[in-house]
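In response to a reviewer's request, we include the raw inputs and outputs for one of the modeled complexes. The two entities were modeled together in a single run.
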Amino acid sequence: MAALDELETAFHKARRDPAFHDTLNAYLRHYAGRPTPLYGATRLSRALGGLRIYLKREDLLHTGAHKINNTLGQALLAVRMGKRRLIAETGAGQHGVATATVAAHFGLQCDVFMGEKDTKRQALNVFRMQLLGARVIPVTSGTKTLKDACNEALRDWVTNVRTTYYCLGSVVGPHPYPLMVREFQSVIGKEARRQILQAEGRLPDALIACVGGGSNAMGLFHPFVKDRGVRMIGVEAGGTGLRPGEHAATLVKGTPGVLHGARSLVLQDRHGQILETRSIAAGLDYPGVGPEHAFYRQLGRARYAAVSDRLALEGCRLLARTEGIIPALEPAHAIGYLKQLANRLPKHSLVVLGLSGRGDKDVETIARALPDV
Amino acid sequence: MMLGTLKIREVFARLRQTHRKALIPFVMAGDPSLPATAQLIQALAGVGADCVEVGIPFSDPLADGPTIQRASSRALGTGVTPAAVLKMIARIKRRVAVPLILLSYWNPVVHYGSRRAACDPAPFLRDAARCGVSGLIVPDLPPDEADGLHDLGRRHGIATIFLAAPTSPAYRLRRIARASEGFIYYVSLTGTTGARRQLPPDWLHGVRELKLLTTKPVCVGFGISTPAHARAVGRVADGVIVGSALLNALEPFRNQRRRWLREAAAFLRGLRRAV
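The model returned the following structure tokens for the whole complex.
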């Protein structure tokens, strides 16, 4: 708790410091490659008949996903706090790679916890982290996925708290993480808002993004929260079905509970034991979700849906074939939902989709799952 | 019926009068089975335990190292629920004179009873009190978030025991000391539970600081593994909590009930002589 107090104080101090923002903005621009394009996907739009879709191209960022927005911010904070070691949990490996990247850049030691199951299905990212000088620690406890990686990272943090900064990768975990990660990721929505106004002269009718813990969706949604006319749709992992243990659709099927120091919706049994999850996308394979998403759902401000592994794979192929963009399996869930969305929204509705990452890490998984590509 | 909080206070008052220190072993409910746990609690109370800490298994025991993680997952594998643990305690309460203190993570506590969706700890505390539980430790609930639990504990006579760590600054130690009933659980090291060869130097300074802030008893846990550790800690603190080292000593004999109980008694006697 003392460590969380210390982190909260440091974060609020940095937040008020113009020099911190100048440094962070310079890194985002010159190192990470911001602003990312807002690309009008006309061929995808035509294929879906009706919607006008723009893609917020976080996949073009350095390291291949939106995760670098957050790790740059947190690494700068760690340096300010005098911490010499970064630890992180990772599911798909994108947050791990983004953490290893900033650790290398700032000369910090880096250990990344990754479920053993995920080290196998995202082997490319394991190698990338190692190449960047990080140590990847396979986690063999529990379900051997993101939730357990999170447990181990927290256990390491309480052990080495004096020297170590825990760089959490999503809008989950104990306060101030959900707030802090939202702040660092909301650059996505701020840019998208400006860009769509410039391109179309108006706000979009809907935003859509995938939700695991929910950082890319929160980053896109939050700057639009007060724009009442803009619908928000979060798409979760429907796995192989919506029975317990077959999916990771926490906002669709979860109940209130406490996991990793946050009260939110959780996939759990009736005794409060956390359930196993399943998704083809390692980055969505998590039984909790950011508390602010649970709040949006409760308010009715955002709507959440689940998309199956199969639909996500089809979404992946659709984007590859129509636009020449291979998305990661995580945002492929959002693409997989577009057909249903087209039926719900009026014709020619303007939609911004958060394309959170690129698919290089997933090609092996996709090749196995889509033998008839 | 004596209220749990008073029962714990009485134990420490008695110990103080005789200049003795409390010895508190930890067991995981349902590992290998609930009837075995019931026997184990009675055996430990019989050889000098002053309180027994009983763990409710959880799928994600964040504060625990490998030993208790394994015990927890074995217990869950046998289908143990918080309700079954309470029933087991109710069955033995007349035969066990020492206070029983439950350790549970927060999520199973708030999902007990019929109002699960409300995340309400009240049914758990009510039933725990009825079953004869004296205290409750929730390692993932800081006192900052525990006003409701504290009030419920008072109402039902269950001591809410909070954890202080070597990294807790003075303002937090004060808050923890204020919120804790029965005793304060001082975590000897920065880290998770688990047997260690050596205790880090952290604990001594922390316990002394804490004892300057409060007259409540301070018990030290996490990492205490040998009679020598227990003796050193007992010189400064009011009690010693031993979990993983006991479970490690028992793990090989899980399938030989008599041997298992004998080993537990022998292990505790060794500590008792040291404290």
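As requested, we also summarize the result in words. The longest strand of chain A covers residues 231-239. Chain A touches chain B through 31 residues (CB under 8 Å).
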